[in-house]
Amino acid sequence: MTKPILYDQDNDTLQAVLKELGQPAFRLKQLEEGLYQHRYLDFDEFTTLPKSLLEALAERFTLFPIEDKNEIISRDKQTEKFLFKLQDDNLIETVLMHYEERHTACISTQVGCPMGCVFCATGQMGYTRNLTAGEILSQIIFCMRRLEADGKNLTNVVYMGMGEPFLNYEEVMSSIARLIDQKGLNFGARRITISTVGILPRIRQFTEAKSQVNLALSLHAPNDKLRSTLVPSNEFYPLKSLIEASKKYTDYTHRRVLIEYALIDGVNDTLALADELATLLHGMLCLVNLIALNPAQDGSLKGSPREKVEAFRDRLMKRGIQTTIRLKRGIEINAGCGQLATSQKGK
Ligand code: SF4
Question: Whose Cα sits closest to atom 5 in ligand 1?
Fold first, then answer.
């Protein structure tokens, strides 16, 4: 039987539980310190709390709801991929990428994904369920502990793993609230990025929230005809509406939008399409992030060769659109963008 997750409980609930268990008010601070500052993974680690209280909490709650079932490290040791089993035996993946001074966790927000983007392994899995805020936070805490053991710190969190974060808006925003809270994980909002394939109502809601968290929009094509063949949700939220909403976001927040564009050989990588993209993005505060599509499991779509990626970038730059080429990471361990997938439930 699965128990409620301690990291899913807000302050008021924790306070009420402690009161019910006859505990003095200061226990809440001790409990929260253990959860967010020390990031204990086991009730036994909370040495400041009485054993009887820990037993009572363990009876009611699960402390850490994800179990590390498998770890794969890339040959260059720059990428680690973790397979986690959830309390209900569902599986998710999390990726930790190391750059010179940066350590970035790419976390999942759903088991599978209902969006069905044709180039994405997660999209081909179908959708099982949303993750809770506690399950999302636990992936981050795991990465933090992992790095801390080596004397390093997590510097960035990207909501770009399995799932469409804006289809799980409440839990994602709740996880971010605790991630940036000084009494929570005290992590800088500007070092967090949420990536969406374009859920229009949620982009608007996110804009109104005036969050300091970065927004990335996965575009992959500059016109509706092509985009609808790659990203099925484009039928519901066409490009014009997404670009309008993104411009409103930049007006409101004065923050640029990151435009993600996966270049697929012979599909969306011509210079004519680069021109079309430049026209679409004209006047928008944005940075285009190009990546050659990572190999998909069935091998039907291929990433553009380096020369085409560079030519696409050069054309955008010439047209005044700030553009970078993203470093590829963890491809041989299927930890790159669009490669995350789990095949069966864990046991
Ligand atoms: S690209 Fe993102 S939104 Fe599209 S199927 Fe994959 S995980 Fe879902």
Answer: 123
